[in-house]
Amino acid sequence: MTKRVSATLAICTLAGLGAALALFLPAQQTSTTAPAEPVAAQPEPAAPAATPAAQVVNIEGFSFGGATVVQPGEQITVSNLDGASHTMTANDGSFDTGLIAGGASATLTMPTAPGTYQYFCSLHPSMVSTITVQS
Ligand SMILES: [Cu+2]
After folding, report:
1. 104 and 61 in one domain?
2. What is the pLDDT of residues 89-123, one digit of tens each?
3. What's the gap in Å between 13 CA and the centre of ligand 1?
4. How far is the CA of 9 from the centre of ligand 1 (A)?
């Protein structure tokens, strides 16, 4: 009985020692390798998503092109590449560039409410497209 207890104790002590060694050794290893490693080895990811260029809706050949998905409240550029004037006007009135002369561009603030917005040119109502607001 006592032998068995002491044997169990011995095993426990050994296991405890092993655990202590296992804890101690890796700690010692990291502390010795750490100074050898240059601190500058962690390059900061150079802000890829920091400031994306403004999205652009192009109007060319009496047709809308370019950006179709924008962030809520995002400011986009509407570029009129035609000679004729155009507008980018939401069917529900939530945005409107007003007249954009040929070769000119306008800044337009998108709605904050997510959804797909139909828009048209108020001068040429057959010019229609959609833009989706989503975060
Ligand atoms: Cu037009």
Report:
1. yes
2. 999 999 999 999 999 999 999 999 999 999 999 99
3. 86
4. 90
